[in-house]
From TrEMBL:
Residues 237-264, 412-439 form the PLD phosphodiesterase domain. Its main location: membrane. GO terms for cellular component: plasma membrane. One of its GO terms (molecular function) is cardiolipin synthase activity. CDD domains: PLDc_CLS_1 (cd09110), PLDc_CLS_2 (cd09112). The chain crosses the membrane at residues 7-24, 30-49, 61-79. Gene3D superfamilies: Endonuclease Chain A (3.30.870.10). It comes from the Bacteria. This is Cardiolipin synthase. GO terms for biological process: cardiolipin biosynthetic process. PROSITE patterns: PLD.
């Protein structure tokens, strides 16, 4: 019997046992028997968990959850703690993606890194060696600061499309903005353009079936990533496509933190102002970004489009630095290593902005050592997060940061959702990956790594402007927080391995 089937049977038993013990009047003897049976299931699960050779921290996390959250803890483990599947679920995708991206990289002339300074070379040489993509010197990047600027540019580029539009989003809503984008896509499809849209089945749960059918009837190819119905009994749905990619005619690309929804324009009354960053690309790196989309599309639909000559055109652009597109996911788990190395190469400053700051041990060590070396380390997070666990799990890492001289800033104007790291003012990354375990281990993500580009100056300027909307966290004031806050932090931190 497969492990997933056994665990599903355990779930049924646990629900029944919980019902019998809590909601019925069975005798004390039967309740003891039910609890004993429950204990056996938990012990078997813990033994199986220990055989998976996870990190000690992650193993202990799930043992605590299984022991101290009866029934609910096991259900949470069943839905969120299953990580063995990624080895088989993404095996084919991992091998195929690597082969295709390496082939694309081999077509490009070797880039000369000799003109880069030492810390730039430190990181770029590493990234080109370990990733299957390459640093491109013929790409122009333009920083789009907020939702208004981003969607104005996106809608303009969509209306100017002549051949094809390919889109991949974690969240695509059927709200005012979503319907406006859909109308543009339908108009282009009816005009004979090739339009493809892939959306994450969980993230885009609010995308209505009527809107999906409207798009299909207009000739748009629409497919969900990892539908819930196919993952209910084997935890496939725990692995999500968090990428935000748009490629138009192979000439223009978009990537960054913004999904399709009115909250990204700051129109959600409950959320308020939304601070985010997106990037417009023109040049050769668009082909790499497009390849990431086409590989995801093939994985979802089985449709092989990469050999089409229209998608192999390389269109250089005037540029002033290097742009490196890096896609990661459960099949690679490399984003944490890239962030770690980038931080380790710093000599003067490390500026981080992330909505969710739940770093692993490697990242925390790199930041601590950098601060101890006298490097300025700044971390910017939203003052109020969009979830209890993410709010207090992030907050639980502040004491360690403050003790090591790391500056922590709480963004107060609204919700900060951008994901950027700027090192020494001339090395940066921006994309979809948060500073948390879900982005490092479970989600499909895509980031741009920028070296010496003018757009880094824009990121730096925007970061300095955002600091004016922040309150710096002072150690003395923070340490005075009450016991209730500390308890919440300690509890939420237990779940940091799956946030």
């Amino acid at each position: 019997m497969k492990k997933q089937t056994i665990e599903f049977v355990f779930v049924i038993f646990i629900v029944i046992l919980g019902y019998l013990v809590v909601l019925t009047d069975i005798s004390f003897k039967w309740k003891v028997l039910c609890l004993s049976f429950y204990g056996v299931i938990i012990l078997i699960t813990i033994f199986s968990l220990m055989l998976e050779y996870r990190s000690a921290q992650n193993t202990l996390l799930w043992i605590y959850i299984l022991l101290f959250l009866p029934v609910i803890g096991y259900l949470f483990y069943w839905y969120s703690g299953q990580l063995l599947l990624k080895g088989t679920l993404f095996k084919r995708k991992r091998a195929n993606d690597r082969e295709v991206l390496e082939t694309i990289s081999k077509r490009v002339r070797k880039t000369d890194f000799s003109k880069l300074n030492n810390h730039q070379q430190c990181f770029v040489r590493y990234l080109n060696k370990v990733s299957v993509t390459h640093s491109d010197p013929h790409t122009k990047t333009t920083i789009l600061k907020d939702g208004t600027e981003t969607f104005q540019e996106i809608k303009r580029r969509l209306r100017e499309a002549n051949e094809f539009i390919h889109m991949e989003y974690y969240i695509f809503r059927s709200d005012r903005l979503g319907k406006e984008i859909i109308e543009i896509l339908m108009e282009k499809a009816k005009a004979g353009l090739e339009v493809r849209l892939m959306y994450d089945a969980v993230g885009s749960v609010s995308l209505s079936s009527s809107d999906v059918n409207r798009m299909k009837n207009a000739g748009i190819h629409v497919h969900p990533f990892n539908p819930i119905r196919s993952g209910l009994f084997n935890q496939k749905f725990n692995f999500r496509n968090h990428r935000k990619i748009m490629v138009i005619d192979g000439k223009t690309g978009f990537v960054g933190g913004l999904n399709i929804g009115v909250e990204y324009l700051g129109e959600d009354e409950d959320i308020g102002f939304w601070r985010d960053t997106h990037v417009l690309l023109k040049g050769e790196a668009v082909q790499t970004l497009h390849a990431v989309f086409l590989l995801d599309w093939m994985d979802v639909t089985g449709e092989m489009l990469l050999k089409d000559e229209r998608y192999q055109r390389v269109i250089p652009a005037e540029a002033d630095g290097l742009v490196h597109v890096v896609a990661t996911g459960p099949e690679t788990e490399d984003m944490s290593d890239h962030y770690y190395t980038m931080i380790s190469c710093a000599t003067k400053s490390i500026w981080i902005a992330s909505p969710y700051f739940v770093p692993n041990q490697a990242i925390r060590t790199a930041l601590r050592i950098a601060a101890q070396k006298g490097i300025q380390v700044r971390i910017m997070v939203p003052e109020r997060n969009d979830g209890f666990l993410t709010q207090y799990a992030s907050q639980s890492y502040f004491p360690e940061a403050l003790r090591n001289g790391i500056e922590v800033y709480l963004y107060q104007k609204g919700f900060l959702h951008e994901k950027i790291i700027i090192v020494d003012g001339d090395l940066a990354t921006i994309g979809t990956a948060n500073m948390d375990m879900r982005s490092f281990r479970l989600n499909l993500e895509v980031n741009l790594f920028l070296t010496g580009t003018e757009s880094i100056q824009d990121l730096t300027r925007h970061y300095e402007e955002d600091l004016q909307e922040c309150c710096r966290l002072r150690p003395v004031e923070f340490y005075k927080r009450g016991m209730e806050e500390r308890v919440k932090e300690s509890f939420a931190r237990l779940f940091s391995g799956v946030l």
